[in-house]
Amino acid sequence: MSSTSSLIRMEIPPVPYFIAVGMTAFGPGGQHPNRRNLGIFDLIWMVKGVLYIAEEDRQWELSEGQTLLLLPDRFHYATKPCDAETVFYWIHFDFTGDWSVTEESAAPVPPIGQPWANRYTIQIPQYTAQPSSAMAQHQLQRFMDLSSENRSNAFWNQQQLFMDLLRKLEEGGRKGSASPAMKLAEKTEAYIKQHYQADLTNETLAEALHFHPNYIVRCMKEAYHCTPMDYLHEYRLEQAKLMLIKTEWPVAQIAETVGFRHTPYFSSCFKKYAGISPLRFRKQYSS
After folding, report:
1. Mean pLDDT throughout 137-158?
2. Cα dihedral sign for 209, 211, 214, 217?
3. Strand pairing of 58-62 and 51-55?
4. Potential cystine with 162: which of 18, 211, 243, 247 (Cβ 3.0-4.6 Å)?
């Protein structure tokens, strides 16, 4: 049994893409086939019995309610035959973006990035136990039922169900592995996004979140490798980028709206951050 657990991190866009779903049943003596470099992700969701399976040098004994995500570029093989009747769903999906494997203790560092890109990093535990197994099985059976419907109807419904399952996997993994520092960093991030137009300081964050300002700074550095004020500064500038593209507001109005008191200081910060002035940034997207 593997003693370590990993997170599969997928940077989106693009998003994972559902391909196919099925159910497999093995009697005593049956076993998972050996596969190498399948080229797609294979998510196993156990229903009954025990499946003995390995990926490279890691081994698992999967039982009811447990999931395992097999990676597209690895060697998968059975470590021993099943002892009794064993049933599991499998979901094949593809992902053409950047993905990596990291330990659960590794803190995610979501880039602030361009706001119109809507970037995010999905973090799915490679191996986990699902608390809502019955609900998941209902969704998986719905997956199976959709396979017999017409393609245009099945496509959208299956993609939606698939994304919902990934969300459940990610949420389940985060509840089990998120440290107090990570939880506070995420609360700080959310508060900054909601109040970035206000006059925020480390002290006002501390008052709002009920933690010492030094502890909030330390948690943000640990989780996101930046201070709250660094995050606030970049988030304001990214919102300014969006406003320069989506509105015809003067630069002074945009500067004030995103939380800068003085327009020249805003313009200086923007040029240092984006490499060009606010007006030149707007012009490159104008007809």
Report:
1. 86
2. negative
3. antiparallel
4. 18
Distances (CA, A) of 50 to 86, 135, 261, 280: 6, 20, 63, 62
| Tokens matching residue 211 | 């933690």
User: Residues spanned by CATH 2.60.120.280 within the chain?
Assistant: 6-177
Is the pLDDT at 107 greater than 60? The verdict is: no
The CATH number that domain 6-177 falls under is 2.60.120.280
Distance CA 202, CA 192 (A): 11
φ/ψ (deg, to 5) at 241: -55, -50
**Integer Cα distance of 112 and 11 in angstroms:** 13
- Where helices occur in the chain by DSSP H, the ranges are 133-146, 151-177, 180-195, 202-209, 213-224, 228-246, 251-257, 263-274, 278-283
Strand order in the sheet with 66-70: 17-26, 86-94, 41-48, 66-70, 127-129
**Is the confidence at residue 253, as pLDDT, over 60?**
yes
* Cβ atoms within 10 Å, residue 32: 24
What CATH class has 180-283? Answer: mainly alpha
Instruction: In whole angstroms, give the CA distance from residue 232 to residue 225.
Output: 13
Whether the model clears a pTM of 0.90, i.e. scores above it, the answer is: no
The Cα–Cα gap between 247 and 268 comes to 21
pLDDT at site 138: 83
Distance CA 203, CA 221 (A): 17
Q: Rg of the Cα trace of the chain? A: 24
- Tokens for 36, please give them: 């190498």
Strands of the sheet containing 35-36, edge to edge, are: 35-36, 75-78, 51-55, 58-62
